Structure formats: C-alpha cells, structure tokens
Amino acid sequence: MRRTRFDQWPCPIARTADLVGDWWTPLVMREAFAGRRRFEDFQRALKVPRAVLARRLDRLVDEGLLKKVAYEEHPPRYEYRLTDKGRAFWDVLAAMWRWGSDWLWGENGPPVILVDNETGREVRPLVVDENTGNRLAGRRLRLGRKQDSSPPS
Fold first, then answer.
1. Contact predicate 129/136, CB 8 Å
2. Which residue has the higher pLDDT, 80 or 17?
3. pTM higher than 0.70, yes or no?
4. Domain of 110?
5. Are 78 and 32 in the same domain?
C-alpha cells in the first residue's frame, strides 16, 4: 500500500510529517547529532535493516539534511554529515525529546537525559517564539494566512 504524500501541502506540519513520518528518520538524525557518520555505525547503533537505512540516508541526502562525503575510493565509502538544514532539524528532535520525556515515562522520567557539555547540567528543551522569547501555548495560537508583503502597484 502506498502512503499518502504531504510534500506539496500548504502546511509546514504536513510537509515535515512527509519527511519524518516514518520511525527511522528521526532516529537516524538523532544518531547523526550523536556523531555517527558512517553507514556501519548507523546500522550498528539502530539495528535497522540495511536496505531501510540506505533508503533513509538517501532521502535525507536528497532533502539536504545530510551530505555524502567520500572517505575511501576503493571500495567507495561515504560519511554522512549534517548540513545547515540538518543542524536546524535539532529543534524538531528537541521538541520530540521534551514531549517524550514528559509524557511517555513515569514520574522518574526517562533513563537518559540531555546534558550541557559545558556545565554538565541537564537540559530540558522548550519551544519559544523567536520574536518574543515567550513559551508557545497552543491554546493561544491559531492558523492564519500569510499576508501578501508585496508593495501595492
């Protein structure tokens, strides 16, 4: 059965879901942020079937989140490195981390935490409005149409 594609919908959530809507893509990206670069390292960490991993990595390269860089010519071998677009995906993973930490464990929380490299303290991601710095609350937001910003003729 073919899945419905959302990559042309006018909604940012739909387009993002089209890219990350399978369970392996966010996990591959998590591993890329953890420093994994080589196919074998991703495969070993995730225990994902090789064919599935190859498809996910190809899609992430095609979408510009990762770039493929040769590190050996014979046989050809590649590393997968985060691009600027890929590094910006951290915000999505951080939001998933926070929600999962808050809602998918008991009161003791998950067995792993995010730690700031400089301070050694736990980090608890929070989604805020970049214009005001205020935490976003869904009940205060609505969807709206972007206003045409072109000057009148």
1. yes
2. 80
3. yes
4. 90-139
5. yes
Instruction: For residues 79 and 31, state if they share a domain.
Output: yes
Report whether 46 contacts 27 (CB < 8 A). yes
Domain count, the chain: 2
Q: What is the CATH number of the domain that holds 32?
A: 1.10.10.10
Asked if residue 75 has a cis previous peptide bond (ω within 30° of 0), the answer is yes
Q: What share of the chain is helix, strand, coil (3-state, %, to 5)?
A: 40, 15, 45
Q: Give the model confidence (pLDDT) of 39-50 as tens digits.
A: 999 999 999 999
Q: Which of 28-37, 85-94, 133-142 has the lowest mean pLDDT?
A: 133-142
β-sheet bridge partners, residue 135: 128
CA torsion through residues 127, 13, 3, 36, sign: negative
d(CA 124, CA 109): 12
| Chain centroid to CA 125 | 14
Question: What's at 36, amino acid-wise?
Answer: R
Sign, CA dihedral 44-49-54-55, equals negative
Whether the Cβ atoms of residue 17 and residue 6 lie closer than 8 Å to each other: yes
In terms of Cα–Cα distance, which of 95, 118, 90, 109 is closest to 30? 90
